[in-house]
Amino acid sequence: MTSLTVTTKTPADLPVDALVVGSVRTDDGPDLAAGHGLPRQAVVHLQAVLADLEATARTGDVHRVVAVPGVKATSVVVTGLGAGSARSTAFDPVALRDAAGAALRSVRTKRAVAVALPTPDVDSLGAVSDGAFAGVYQYDKATSLGTPRAGKASAPVAGPTITVFSGAGQGKEARDVVARSATLGAARDWARDLVNTPPNVLFPQSFADAVKKKVSESPGRVTVTVLDEKALAKGGFGGIVGVGQGSVNPPRIVTMRYAPSGAKASVALVGKGITFDSGGLNLKPSTGMVTMKSDMAGAAAVAATVLAAAELGLPVGVTGYLCLAENLPSGTAQRPSDVVVMRNGTSVEILDTDAEGRMVLGDGICLASEKKPDWIVDIATLTGAQMVALGADIAGVMGNDDAFRTSVVAAADAAGEGAWAMPLPAAMRAKLDTPTADIAHKGDRDGGMLTAAIFLQEFVGEGIPWAHLDIAGPSFNTKGATGATPKGGTGFGVSTLLGLVERHARG
After folding, report:
1. Which end of the chain is more exposed for a tag (fewer CB within 10 A), N or C?
2. Domain that holds residue 82
3. In this predicted model, what pLDDT tens digit does every residue of 335-383 receive, in sequence order?
């Protein structure tokens, strides 16, 4: 298991398998970034090697050099930080996070790695620590949810021991920020594992079982309750029941509750958890199903955030609602033109069974609203329109409170996760009008990301600030790994949500 520690010892004296340092692009070519702590002979040697390799010092430009004079590490890994000065210690946290992630990915099979990137303050120290932990992630293909393949012995994927050199000292604040990075990193890796798990292994009940198992192994004090298909039907959760009725794997709503003693604040997180989305009777084309095991990335992010908040002992109550269903076609599947009644009594006409995420979220938001939290955030791989508008790397953020929406975007910026505020024009509510129910669950093609959020807004309790994160693009990386982001499940949203909860705890 990957671990993070902090040190102020001279990096060149650390007896590790690999020592990571930074490079910058100057007018005279590539050079080492400040903070490396290397002796002159090592610097001269590495400068010569970088020049010979025509290093660019851009993010992702990583070079491993062995037998560097004056360094105890077996090899030195030089990772690009972009344009800058060899004397500068101020770098954008995103650049630090990505540089550390790219470097650690190249040596993630090693036992011990030290990182000596510029860390003049605790913010940069946190960015480096976070990126380093994120970079070593790899999904264990031999194990799903802790169950080895039949007939094959396998050990869990082991990560390296990572020691981060701190230019900000080794006091409590520095130790705390590194410890937070380790807790966040482990939680985010769990979210990535859930997203990457094959859909024949991860379905609503096995997802619920995985949450129970993880919570039982965690030092955080989290309680888990599960509503099965009978309880959902009895409780009036028509949205999620309708979505899941076509599958032999019935739906579940899993509630994870962290309630520290004395907490005067409470927040709610709601995650879309479609463990596989075929589109239902409105069947997707075959190419559209390839990544649909990732349609539960919102629920994974919520589960990981609640766990991390509990393990960090944050002084605010956090409740996560995982809305889990499998959207498949069958003789019992939901039909276009069906009308269902949601948890809050709202009747909804179904127009497209492939727009199922908003239905499970609507019931989850109703349930969350009943507890009257300080605010609600839902997170979902909701619309293809998000990717059309914002691309594969930037989430759309919408909400019923401009100030709260701004806070969510600020939390995403601080976490290094791309997010952009989007409007909810009141005039677009008319797109959801229908003569056969209180509301239709989908509008026309134009502004599809916005009308999906306008639909969700109908289920938010009166007076509760709410924000919706559409993470259809950034939740799953179909391209190659880059920076601190792996291929496959990215764990997007965990850092943002945890940061948002921390901000609320600070008042």
Report:
1. C
2. 3-168
3. 999 999 999 999 999 999 999 999 999 999 999 999 999 999 999 999 9
